[in-house]
Structures are given as C-alpha cells and as structure tokens.
Design goal:
The chain contains no helices and eleven strands. The chain is about 0% helix and about 55% strand. Strand 9 and strand 10 form a beta hairpin. About 30% of the residues are buried. The chain has about 110 residues and is mainly β.
C-alpha cells in the first residue's frame, strides 16, 4: 500500500508562490504521481503529473506557472506554484498510481486572496 501526506498549503496573496510537498511511503514502485485540486462546488481536476521516467504533463491552467518535480531520495513529490491567482484556490491532493490501484493523500488547502 502507498501512503501519501501533503503539506505546504496556506494563504497567499495573488502573484505569490507556494511549494506543496507530498511525502510518499514507497515512491520507487509508483508509476505516475500527480497533483489534483478541488475547488468548492467543483469536481476534482488534474493539475500536473510526473511519470516514473520523469515525463511531465500540465493542465492548461498550470502551464507556465506550476512545476511538478520529484526527489526519490527524499521520497517526495513537489508542486511549485508561482504567480498564484484567486482561481487557484482549492484543496490540493497528491495522487499515486501503482499497478491498477490509485492512492490519494488527505489534501492541503491553498487559498489565494488579498
């Protein structure tokens, strides 16, 4: 079983930055890691993914502003978020795919407001 724990959320002003972290219990067996978000009243949506080989994909809303990365030694996946906008406000979830199973963290709140 894969366990994920997110951290790094908080309140930030528009234009600011945050770095989210996702500690993963068994990172080297995971095929794909991803960050998703869910705003109030909306469905959970993909933000970014990184494969075992290091290939990355981004939602259009995240391109040019967000960067997903991974440190295997620290068993952690990161989401660097720059130039944050109020519409980025959401609970951010870390996700891991292993075989046919999908694992989720508990989420971390990101609020972008002046």
């Amino acid at each position: 079983q894969v366990q994920l724990v997110e951290s790094g959320g908080g309140l930030v002003q528009p234009g600011g930055s945050l770095r989210l972290s996702c500690a993963i219990s068994t990172i080297n067996i995971v095929s794909i890691n991803g960050w998703y978000r869910q705003a109030p009243g909306k469905q959970r949506e993909l933000v970014a993914t990184i494969t075992y080989g290091g290939s990355t994909t981004y939602a259009d809303s995240a391109k040019e502003r967000f960067t997903i990365s991974r440190d295997r030694a620290k068993k952690t996946v990161y989401l660097q978020m720059n130039n944050l906008k109020p519409e980025d406000t959401a609970v951010y979830y870390c996700n891991a795919l292993y075989g046919s199973a999908t694992y989720w963290g508990q989420g971390t709140q990101v609020t972008v407001s002046s």
